[in-house]
Amino acid sequence: MRAKLIGLVRTVVAVPMGYVVLVLASTFVQETLFHGVSYHRSPLSTLIGAGILTPFSGVAAGLATAAIAGRAHVWHVLPLCWWISIETTILYSRHIVDGPLWFEGGAGLTLILGCLAGAVAWRETVRRRARPAPVGA
């Protein structure tokens, strides 16, 4: 019974904590490193740098979500991906962001792919640790 309760708590905590990691990491990249990213106002070097580094915010969020969840790593990241798509849609439709649809949609997509990559990386790390060492190695 205790193990099921712990599993339930980890499931409930994993997604919001993953989102917190996503927000903190993407804020660090976009606001601290690049002093704000705007499609119309940022130089090309800032857009390229943010485009390269921002997906790693998704990877960090995916890793955190999967690690906290402890099981069904990719499944636990799917609600986080859903939140990213909803947030991207709201930010774009309310004109809170200034980029065209392809730019903002692409940014959201890279975060989603980063989250999935982080969850898969965590899953594979756990699987490798669980494998017994080969005989004679």
How would you portray this structure in words?
This protein has 137 residues and is mostly helical. It has one domain. 80% of the residues lie in helices and 0% in strands. The protein has four helices and no strands. Helix 1 packs across helix 3 and helix 2 packs parallel to helix 4. The protein is elongated and about 55 Å long. The model has no long low-confidence stretch (mean pLDDT 93).
Question: What's the short story on this structure?
Answer:
The chain has 137 residues and is mainly α. The protein is 80% helix and 0% strand.
pLDDT < 50 stretches: none
Net shape: elongated
Q: Helix coverage percent of residues?
A: over 70%
Number of strands: 0
Major sheet details: none
Overall number of structural domains: 1
Structural class: mainly alpha
| SSE series | HHHH
Radius of gyration: 17 Å
Number of helices, counting only DSSP H or I runs of 4 residues or more: 4
Indicate the proportion of strand residues.
under 5%
Distance between the termini: 39 Å
Average the pLDDT over all residues and give the rounded result: 93
